[in-house]
Amino acid sequence: MTILFPIIYSAALTYLVWKAFKVMSNGWSISGTEKKGFNSTNFQQKKYTIHPELLDKSGNITEEELLTVRFSNDNDSSLEGKGSATD
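Above: the chain sequence. Below: its structure as tokens.
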């Protein structure tokens, strides 16, 4: 049993290191945009995300007034200068 443990341990370690390098190589190969066919015309990242809570039933951004919450321990100095009222 004492000789079997180092063999199993080294085999598992070798397998995990091999898998890690395989995953990393996939990431490195995708970084070259011309290799996978991604370019600025095919793949454009959105600059903002619209959360589903802000959409109405038809998928348009809602015009309703939004509920905001301010906690008493909030030390946000940007709101203090604007003269916001607290309850």
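The two ends are 70 Å apart (CA to CA).
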